TrEMBL record:
SUPFAM superfamilies: UDP-Glycosyltransferase/glycogen phosphorylase (SSF53756)
A GO molecular function held by the record: glycosyltransferase activity
InterPro entries cross-referenced by the UniProt entry: Glyco_trans_1 (IPR001296)
Transmembrane segments: none
Domain Glycosyl transferase family intervals: 4-154
High-level lineage: Bacteria, Pseudomonadati, Bacteroidota, Bacteroidia, Bacteroidales
Pfam families: Glycos_transf_1
Database matches in CDD domains: GT4_PimA-like
Organism: Alistipes onderdonkii
Descriptive protein name: Glycosyl transferase family 1 domain-containing protein
Coiled coil: none
Length: 184
């Protein structure tokens, strides 16, 4: 069973319909998959009885029980599917990397800073359909790529996407500019 996590509050902007279509396409192709939807307060009615869609709802990470549930979702997920229509810099991609979760998303906004094609996941064109995402996921399963993508995601997190990595890089930048200022 492939456990696919969809995490976002805005169903339309995050590409919820494409995510559901992707899971349906995977199941039709013989790949047992379930979409775990976290963050959506009101899942569209047409998906509420879908056996391949589990609505977790909105989780408040400031409430310990809900935070624990959110962490469990990440720990149990095989991939993050977020075919977002617009994104600037989603923290969700850093969260995926922290848990070593490969990401399948769209190539829009600043996502390329977080998801590197063939390294920790794939960015499909904004025109990508549920069938396109299903085919890419199926290809990764057939080529047994998911474990490598997972390892790379974790490495990318440690080297670039974690707070310690960010603060180290920020300190380097401050030091460089401080040295330049002292030379003037």
């Amino acid at each position: 069973m492939l456990r696919i996590l969809f995490s976002g509050v805005d169903w339309e902007r995050k590409g919820g319909e494409i995510a559901v279509d992707t899971v349906m396409q995977l199941n039709a192709a013989g790949i047992r998959a379930t979409l775990y939807v976290a963050g959506i307060k009101d899942l569209p009615q047409k998906h509420r009885d879908n056996p391949h869609v589990k609505n977790i709802g909105f989780l408040n990470k400031n409430i310990p029980e809900q935070y624990h549930q959110y962490v469990q979702l990440w720990q149990q997920a095989d991939i993050l599917l977020l075919p977002t229509r617009a994104e600037c810099a989603g923290i969700v991609y850093c969260e995926a990397a922290a848990y070593g979760i490969p990401v399948f998303t769209t190539d829009t906004g600043g996502i390329a800073n977080y998801v590197v094609n063939g390294v920790n996941g794939y960015r499909l064109p904004l025109t990508g359909t549920g069938a396109d995402f299903a085919n890419k996921i199926k290809e990764c399963i057939c080529k047994q790529e998911l474990p490598r993508l997972s390892e790379n995601a974790r490495r990318l997190y440690k080297e670039k996407l974690s707070w310690p990595a960010w603060s180290s890089r920020f300190a380097e930048i401050v030091e460089t500019y401080s040295e330049r200022e002292n030379q003037i």
